């Protein structure tokens, strides 16, 4: 079988930008204040080499500033590499910036002719394709209005419709598919699949991994101006998202520890102030005759944290104080867990299922150990001290934050359920997030 030729070839591409600290904007300022023109050199790309074969779809992923869009602009020849070479064979169509090449005072119809001619179509070719471009964009009622009256979604529809009408050998797309309604996005994906099936080479820059997985054959993960990993979109995407999540969790843990230090130095000022341990977004109500003054979450190792693995036990330690008139009252303690999208996941009280009583102490501590069965997500804990009839002494809504993590994207849903799989003569028991083979 004959190997397909490379349509795109990048060899040791490096791109440098000058970042000025205080550059004069006019000739006068540049002459009079020459000392201001200090800059530093910033290498956005630092030795990138890759190739894309005819008919292949490739995704470029990475965090902001890693050089994805810069590489795409060099493929379109909007800019050129400082060092290295880039070869692109055939006609190129691109969606780099929303509405690039559109004149705001011209109508959508006029901009079709202008934009398509930039991509290399003749006037007669545009005439033949005009009705199909308008039909695909779904802008029949607005096509003769100035594009300055268009919404960003309408811009995207028109830009995409023009770009795919060019019959290009190479189609370059930068984040533009994130704009527009869901139905039109689905329509664009179907069109991209159709274009790919005809042999068009596609390069997509996107932060949405589902787009990369659905369209692309391969993915390149760019980091600090270099290619960190290349391979299947599913594999590269999983590693990229895991790295991003790890970095995010590290920052979150640092912020959490810093907030705890700040809380240690705070003192309550007035009984209606939020307790120091609470999130600043927490809401409280109640008579305040009994108040929750402290609450902390601990993991299975006894370390205070807000991050827990799926199926990792979590312990809540809550401290309350009673006023003289409420000391000895019969009370109940309640805890609720709500996901950050508002879904109420779990709620319990210390006396649920029991006919016992709890007498309020002047200062008391309550511990609740939870076998965490929640799946990955962000959760908030509601805490409350109330009397036996549910009248609140002190309610704290969204008082604490809890993050649940797991690295198995094959698990989904709201809860983790311990389970046993029987496959042939093998049995797999999944407990605490880990699978164990059983005889």
Explain briefly what this protein structure is.
This protein has 439 residues and is an alpha+beta fold. It has helices at 27-32, 68-75, 108-118, 123-137, 152-164, 182-197, 209-215, 233-265; strands at 6-20, 39-53, 57-61, 83-88, 92-95, 170-174, 201-205, 218-223, 226-231, 283-285, 290-298, 307-309, 314-322, 330-339, 344-349, 358-359, 363-370, 377-387, 392-405, 419-423, 426-431, 434-438.
List the helices and strands and how they pair.
Layout lengths: L5 E15 L6 H6 L6 E15 L3 E5 L6 H8 L7 E6 L3 E4 L12 H11 L4 H15 L14 H13 L5 E5 L7 H16 L3 E5 L3 H7 L2 E6 L2 E6 L1 H33 L17 E3 L4 E9 L8 E3 L4 E9 L7 E10 L4 E6 L8 E2 L3 E8 L6 E11 L4 E14 L13 E5 L2 E6 L2 E5 L1
Parallel strand pairs: 3-7, 3-8, 5-6, 6-7, 12-19
Antiparallel strand pairs: 1-2, 1-4, 8-9, 10-19, 11-13, 13-17, 14-15, 14-16, 14-18, 18-19, 20-21, 21-22
Helix pairs in contact: 3-4, 3-5, 4-5
Q: What would the keywords be for this entry?
A:
single chain, 439 residues, alpha+beta, seven-stranded mixed sheet, six-stranded mixed sheet, 22 strands, elongated
Describe, in plain words, how this protein is organized in 3D:
This protein has helices at about 25-30, 70-75, 110-120, 125-135, 150-165, 180-195, 210-215, 235-265, and strands spanning about 5-20, 40-55, 55-60, 85-90, 90-95, 170-175, 200-205, 220-225, 225-230, 285, 290-300, 305-310, 315-320, 330-340, 345-350, 360, 365-370, 375-385, 390-405, 420-425, 425-430, 435-439. With about 450 residues, the chain is α+β, with helices and mostly antiparallel strands. Strands 10, 12, 14, 15, 16, 18 and 19 form a seven-stranded mixed sheet that branches. α3 (about 110-120) packs across α4 (about 125-135), α3 (about 110-120) crosses α5 (about 150-165) and α4 crosses α5 (about 150-165).
């Amino acid at each position: 079988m004959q190997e397909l030729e490379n349509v795109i070839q990048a060899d040791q591409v490096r791109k440098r930008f000058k970042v000025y600290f205080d550059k004069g904007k006019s000739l006068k300022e540049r002459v009079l204040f020459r000392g201001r023109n200090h800059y530093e050199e910033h290498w956005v790309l630092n030795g990138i080499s890759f190739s894309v074969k005819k008919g292949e779809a490739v995704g470029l992923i990475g965090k902001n500033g890693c050089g994805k869009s810069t590489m795409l602009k060099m493929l379109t020849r909007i800019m050129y590499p400082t060092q290295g070479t880039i070869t692109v064979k055939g006609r190129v169509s691109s969606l780099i910036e929303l509405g690039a090449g559109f004149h705001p005072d011209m109508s959508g119809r006029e901009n079709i002719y202008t934009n398509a001619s930039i991509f290399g179509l003749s006037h007669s070719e545009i005439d033949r394709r005009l009705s199909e471009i308008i039909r695909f964009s779904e802008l029949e009622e607005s096509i003769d209005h100035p594009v300055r009256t268009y919404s960003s979604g309408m811009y995207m529809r028109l830009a995409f419709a023009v770009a795919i009408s060019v019959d290009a050998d190479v189609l370059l797309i930068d984040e533009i598919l994130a704009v527009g309604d869901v139905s039109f996005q689905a329509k664009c994906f179907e069109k991209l699949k159709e274009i790919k099936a005809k042999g068009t080479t596609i390069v997509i820059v996107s932060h949405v991994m589902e787009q990369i997985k659905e369209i692309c054959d391969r993915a390149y993960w760019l980091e600090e101006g270099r290619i960190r990993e290349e391979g299947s979109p599913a594999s590269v995407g999983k590693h990229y998202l895991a790295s991003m999540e790890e970095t995010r969790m590290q920052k979150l843990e640092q912020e959490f520890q810093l907030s705890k230090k700040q809380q240690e130095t705070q003192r309550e000022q007035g009984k209606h102030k939020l307790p120091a341990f609470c999130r600043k977004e927490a809401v409280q109500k109640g008579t305040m005759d009994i108040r929750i003054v402290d609450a902390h979450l601990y993991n299975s190792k006894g370390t205070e944290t807000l991050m827990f693995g799926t199926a990792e036990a979590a312990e809540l330690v809550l401290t309350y104080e009673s006023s003289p008139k409420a000391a000895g009252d019969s009370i109940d303690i309640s805890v609720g867990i709500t996901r950050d999208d508002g879904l109420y996941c779990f709620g319990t009280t210390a006396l649920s299922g029991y006919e016992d009583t709890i007498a309020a102490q002047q200062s008391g501590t309550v511990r609740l150990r939870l076998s965490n069965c929640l799946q990955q997500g962000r959760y908030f804990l509601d805490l409350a001290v109330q009397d036996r009839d549910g009248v609140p002494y002190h309610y704290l809504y969204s008082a604490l934050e809890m993050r649940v993590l797991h690295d198995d994207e094959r698990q989904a849903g709201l809860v983790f359920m311990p389970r046993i799989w029987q496959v042939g003569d093998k049995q797999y028991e999944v407990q605490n997030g880990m699978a164990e083979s059983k005889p």
